[in-house]
Design a protein that fits this description.
It is a single chain. By secondary structure, the protein is an alpha/beta fold. The protein folds into three domains: 4-46 and 95-167 and 269-337, FAD/NAD(P)-binding domain, CATH 3.50.50; 68-91 and 169-268, 2-Layer Sandwich (D-Amino Acid Oxidase, Chain A, domain 2); 345-403. The chain has ten helices and 18 strands. Strands 1, 2, 8, 9, 10, 11, 17 and 18 form an eight-stranded mixed sheet that branches. A seven-stranded mixed sheet has the order 6-5-13-14-15-12-16, with helices on both faces. A three-stranded antiparallel sheet has the order 3-7-4. A hairpin with a 4-residue loop joins strand 5 and strand 6. Helix 6 packs antiparallel against helix 7. The N and C termini lie far apart (59 Å). The model has no long low-confidence stretch (mean pLDDT 91). The structure holds flavin-adenine dinucleotide.
Length: 406
């Protein structure tokens, strides 16, 4: 049988897969980007907030932006703190438009995007890999051959693990989000504010959020973190906390629900994922690039995809014969900050740090400048928490950090 052959087959058109396919296609490689959903609206699950630098770093156009934000608010059970900047601090992406844009760039550079194709299995045959897909519209099986196969299937890790039991220990998170349309006066109040809710009142053992979008729309979501993935199934409590935000916080009387979506994160504790096997390489959430403390994974998945792209080029040029150096570079980049974030996430969401401590921690942060809070929340510069504060506050924060066992 004459199979269609590609330099690289990437499975999963999320931020990591889409970006990896885009840069490899731009460099002239023959790429197939395959995705099980047949449209990008179907799995529009991510809240997709990101700092402003993501736009320039990854060369993203206006069309992928849902809104700009220049305020950052943290609400706990008893404390409310807002930090502001005269300039935009970040954006909320329109996650569907964003992934569609990445895939349009793949096609624009002469490569292929197949939507509605689910990866089934792969096998090795005379130096090439045969990848099998099921076309979901008619159940037909389609095979292609690849020199390099990329697992970008996110938390499912469909290619890297044959059996569920082979997977490492995960911290799991389930988030659901409603896209709602609200009255103009409600929207105007929250149109440029990224709001996170911590603490028992708003979302015990997790956090909830309100993010602005375009046209009177807000994303209102809640997420819970679990050690045991089986407990994720009951979503009722999450919905309850979403309605709490809409009715008690926004006080919207006549909101309209436009869309409900959600998904799961599975983060390997200690970053123990399999990064590569022979000519197969894993990127994005498949190798836990999501930062588990804040559940932020888009730009980190794209960062990792860019690193993978560099090694894929070297492999195809015959300069390297495996992807072990990719794994080393990824660990060098992520290990330290991700390990601290993981420990904080376990303390906050699993051990369930007492509510009063959360209130205190956030009220101390009010003395910090907006840039410093951005550095802590988005660049994981946790050392800034104690630096730059006066003597008394510094002692107080150190006491809290001790309680957090950092
Ligand atoms: C509720 C929620 C809110 C979030 N909010 C934010 C946020 O505000 N900011 C932020 O930066 N991050 C956020 N994240 C995290 C972020 O969305 C992820 O880290 C990011 O999407 C990971 O990108 P990825 O490409 O690795 O995987 P994914 O985006 O999960 O993409 C994987 C793709 O693979 C496809 N796939 C899976 N199996 C197969 C198969 N067998 N065959 C074919 N295709 C397959 C899936 O359909 C999917 O499209 C959020 C996550 C959740 C769950």
């Amino acid at each position: 049988m004459n199979l269609k052959s590609f330099d690289i087959v990437i499975v999963g058109a999320g931020p990591a897969g889409g970006h990896c396919a885009r840069i490899l296609a731009k460099s002239g490689r023959k790429v197939l980007l395959a995705e099980q959903n047949d449209t990008f609206d179907k799995n529009d699950f991510s809240s997709a907030a990101t700092p402003l630098e993501t736009l320039s770093k990854f060369d993203l156009p206006e069309s992928v932006i849902g809104s700009y934000w220049h305020k950052l608010t943290i609400e706990t059970s008893k404390v409310s703190q807002t930090w502001e900047s005269p300039k935009s601090l970040g954006v909320v992406l329109n996650f569907a438009n964003f992934r569609e844009f990445l895939s349009s760039e793949v096609q624009g550079n002469g490569s292929e995007v197949w939507l509605g194709y689910r990866y089934i299995k792969h096998s090795q045959a005379s130096g090439e890999t045969i990848v099998e897909f099921k076309q979901l519209s008619d159940g037909q099986i389609v095979k292609v051959s690849a020199k390099v196969l990329v697992d970008a299937t996110g938390f499912v890790r469909a290619i890297m693990y044959d059996k569920e039991n082979d997977k490492p220990d995960f911290l799991s998170g389930t988030g659901i989000e409603y896209l709602i349309e609200v009255e103009l006066e409600v929207y105007d109040k929250y149109a440029s504010d990224l709001i996170f809710f911590l603490g028992d009142k708003w979302m015990p053992k997790g956090y909830s959020w309100i993010f602005p979008m375009e046209q009177n729309r807000l994303k209102v979501g809640a997420g819970r973190i679990f050690l045991d993935p089986k407990t994720v199934k009951n979503l009722e409590p999450l919905k309850k906390y979403i309605y709490l935000l809409i009715e008690e916080y926004l006080k919207s009387k006549s909101y309209k629900i436009i869309d409900k979506h959600g998904s799961t994160l599975k983060y390997s504790r200690g970053l123990k994922d399999i990064y590569c096997k022979d000519n197969i390489i894993a990127i994005g959430d498949t190798v836990s690039t999501v930062n588990f403390l804040g559940g932020e994974g888009i730009r980190h998945g794209m960062d990792g995809a860019q690193i993978a792209g560099k090694y894929i080029q070297r492999y195809l040029e015959g300069e390297i014969s495996d992807f072990r150096d990719y794994e080393t570079e990824m660990h060098r980049k992520f290990d330290q900050k991700w390990n601290i974030s993981e420990r904080l996430a376990v303390r906050k969401y699993i051990d369930d740090v007492n509510d009063e401590l959360t209130d205190k921690m956030i009220s101390y942060l009010k003395y910090m400048k907006t840039e410093d809070v951005m550095d802590i929340l988005f660049y994981y510069k946790f050392e800034k928490i104690s630096r730059g504060l006066g003597g008394y506050l510094q002692r107080k924060i150190k006491e809290l950090i001790k309680k957090f066992h950092l």
